[in-house]
Design a protein that fits this description.
- By secondary structure, the chain is an alpha+beta fold.
- It is built from 21 helices and 16 strands.
- Strand 14 and strand 15 form a beta hairpin.
- Helix 6 packs antiparallel against helix 7, helix 9 packs antiparallel against helix 10 and helix 10 runs antiparallel to helix 11.
- The longest helix has 41 residues.
- The chain is rod-shaped.
Length: 615
């Protein structure tokens, strides 16, 4: 059916068939003929019988919108149906609507003709056979008895009879020859002889009669089948010529191996599939091509047409799903257009992430690259308004030079920094304030975060890290005092395990009156006098030898017992006076070579000490 010309306006589902009818009316579809603006309708039926339907008649009742009967189409006949058992049919039979006011139809089957002389009629309400009807009629015909003619025997009065008949004939002015009378007498004699013969038994006569009938029926059946095959063969050719390939397929299937029917059946299926493709019935065409086999090219063409038709109808999601499920290389141009349209739909529906996905897949198609920027910008603004700054930053960084994105990006980074600062995630806040640069008071916010993070490190005992962050906090209020405190605590902790000139240098950063730093410095200087790197010169050999005899290896040992530090150099005690330690026991070995260096190994780390004795 030409669906461009005929548009369906209403579908009426028919009720179940009654009266034991082997055909059921399924539905009636009312179409509008766009070329004439007239209504036509199509009835669809299903064959529920065990025989092929050849033709049938229907009675169609027509009703208006108020369900008022406005007319009846009586004995409308469907010819050349050839519907197999279980087959649905009638979809291609257009019937002109008798009145434009008709809104619905009721369809009733009145008579059906099946193959092999079977039929159904609403008057008998069962499937019967025409041949059986004729046989019954013959069997029920009354027998007419045949009266036997009386025998004529030779007698002495023969001449008298002849004389009387001659006289009678003469009286009636008729001339009858004696020879004729003699012939009549001969016939009478023959009848007498036949009567005297022994009759043939009845069952023999019956067998002969039935034998003759059987032979005649067989000959008739063979002739009938041959005629039907010949007739179907010609009918199939006619269907092919008129383009009714589905009917041709039914006929050639029924013919089996008759003549070249298998080859014609294959040709009919190919032609039917091609006609379905041309009519846009791609799914049905694909089913036939798959049945035929070796039709990959045609199947791909059907899928391309099917996907394209869905795309033209705006069914983009369904079209893409069909293309993916086919597993075939669908035309890339069609797929690109579908994804492009899906991207635009998603953009319009504010499904931005989905839209970006579609446009990215077809980034080289049409203006997809520009649309990616538009969608990303809209998505970023949406996320910014929703307070999802991290997602906003992620999106804006992909279009960093688009429209006013540079300014918006600084703003969002600043807002995200404030959020992290408020939640005391100072390290993360510092990162975002750094990115925000000179946006508003980002620099001041960052100093505050450095200060707060330094305090956290100090509380955790990470004094060196705290000192680093206090320095970065720069002139933030209270920073200098907090730095001194962190430095002092760090030095006290460090002196529990090692004492170097670097330790003394750090202590000297403290104000002289800070806590007990001055006393600690004095103690450490005495200690450092005994360890260090000496400059080896000829002028001070004597001084060096007097202080320890450095020509050989010397050993400087520092131990901790009961909270006090003890030092020995080559076994000689060194007084550390008030240098106290909180707890712990540890040992360090210092090695002085008779060269110019003193090295100390502590926990795998080598330290170098230096002290220059001037001349």
């Amino acid at each position: 059916m030409d669906f461009e010309r005929f548009k369906a306006v209403k579908i009426i589902m028919q009720r179940a068939q009654v009266n034991n009818c082997p055909i059921s009316a399924v539905k009636t579809t009312i179409y509008k003929d766009t070329t004439t603006d007239k209504h036509v309708f199509v009835n669809e039926f299903k064959n529920n019988a065990e025989y092929v339907v050849v033709s049938f008649s229907v009675r169609i009742s027509c009703f208006d919108e108020q369900i008022k009967l406005v007319g009846t189409i009586k004995d409308y006949k469907y010819n050349d149906v050839f519907a197999a058992p279980g087959e649905e049919f009638g979809q291609n039979k257009l019937i002109a609507s008798p009145d434009e006011s008709i809104n619905s139809f009721a369809v009733e089957i009145t008579h059906i003709e099946f193959e092999d002389d079977y039929f159904w009629d609403e008057s008998i309400r069962k499937i019967d056979n025409h041949k059986a009807e004729e046989t019954i009629a013959v069997e029920m015909a009354p027998e007419i008895p045949v009266e036997e003619a009386p025998a004529i025997e030779e007698s002495p009065v023969q001449n008298e009879v002849l004389a009387v008949r001659e006289n009678t004939v003469q009286n009636e002015a008729a001339v009858v020859s004696r020879d004729a009378v003699q012939e009549e007498v001969s016939v009478a004699k023959e009848q007498k002889k036949q009567k005297e013969k022994k009759p043939m038994p009845g069952f023999v006569k019956t067998l002969i009669v039935f034998g003759i009938i059987a032979v005649l029926l067989m000959i008739s059946y063979i002739a009938f089948c041959k005629y039907n095959q010949y007739s179907d063969y010609n009918r199939g050719a006619a269907y092919m010529a008129s383009g009714e390939y589905d009917y041709a397929i039914t006929v050639y299937t029924r013919l089996g191996n008759y003549e070249d029917s298998p080859a014609l059946l294959l040709e009919a299926k190919k032609a039917y599939a091609a006609s379905l493709y041309d009519a846009g019935e791609y799914q049905n065409a694909i089913a036939i091509y798959r049945e035929l086999g070796n039709c990959d090219e045609q199947i791909l063409a059907c899928y391309n047409g099917w996907v394209l038709s869905m795309e033209k109808a705006g069914q983009y999601t369904e079209a893409l799903q069909l293309a993916q499920e086919s597993g075939l290389p669908i035309d890339e141009t069609i797929i690109n257009e579908i994804k492009y349209q899906l991207g635009k739909q998603s953009f319009d529906n504010q499904s931005y992430e989905e839209a970006i996905g579609y446009f990215t897949e077809v980034s080289d198609y049409e203006d997809s690259k520009k649309l990616i920027q538009d969608v990303t910008y809209a998505y970023g603004r949406q996320m910014m308004d929703a307070g999802n700054y991290e997602k906003t930053i992620e999106l804006f960084e992909t279009i960093s030079s688009f429209k006013d994105v540079p300014q918006l990006l600084l703003k969002v980074q600043y807002l995200q920094g404030v959020r992290y600062k408020d939640s005391k995630s100072y390290e993360a806040a510092i990162q975002y304030f750094t990115e925000a640069g000179d946006y508003e008071d980002s620099a001041a916010q960052m100093k505050e975060c450095y200060f707060m993070q330094a305090q956290d490190y100090k509380k955790q005992g990470q004094y060196e890290k705290a000192m680093e962050y206090f320095k970065l906090a720069d002139d933030y209020e209270g920073t200098q005092e907090e730095y001194y405190n962190a430095l002092y605590l760090h030095l006290l902790e460090a002196m529990k395990t090692e004492v170097t000139l670097e330790t003394v240098e750090l202590l000297e950063e403290l104000p002289r009156d800070y806590e007990d730093s001055a006393a600690i410095i004095r103690t450490l200087k005495r200690y450092v006098d005994h360890v260090g790197e000496y400059e080896w010169t000829t002028s001070n050999d004597k001084d060096i030898n007097e202080k320890g005899g450095f020509e050989d290896h010397i050993f400087v040992k520092l131990t901790f017992t009961d909270g006090e530090a003890h030092m020995t150099v080559d076994g000689n005690d060194v007084d550390l006076k008030d240098f106290k330690y909180d707890s712990g026991t540890n040992s360090n070995t210092y090695t002085m070579l008779n060269t110019t260096t003193i090295t100390r190994t502590f926990n795998g780390k080598v330290h170098t000490y230096k002290k220059i004795i001037e001349e």
